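Worked problem 6 (solution included).
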Amino acid sequence: MGSIVATSVYRQLLHDHQALRSQSRRGDCDDNAQAESLWSRLKTEVLELRERPVFADLADAQASVAIYFDYYNHERLHSSIAYQLPYHTHQQILQLNALNCPA
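Solution. The predicted structure is:
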């Protein structure tokens, strides 16, 4: 399947399911840096350690990704945020925003 045909099929599938494409802005490679990092970690910390086939079925894939996301946000320390947990960092930001936002 050519790339133009694949793109057309992909766009139609998104449209059929009322989904929106998420893309970075032209020329801004940092737009999706956090998301790209997350998927990279999932790939290296989970998928590459599994035997083939990686998942038994769609439900297994969904459960595995959900478990990893929970670990990633609540247990895995991140060097980019001074070895804190993303969940705790996010909660701190929310509290600061609430304090700085006039009611």
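Discussion: The CA atoms of residues 77 and 83 lie 5 Å apart.
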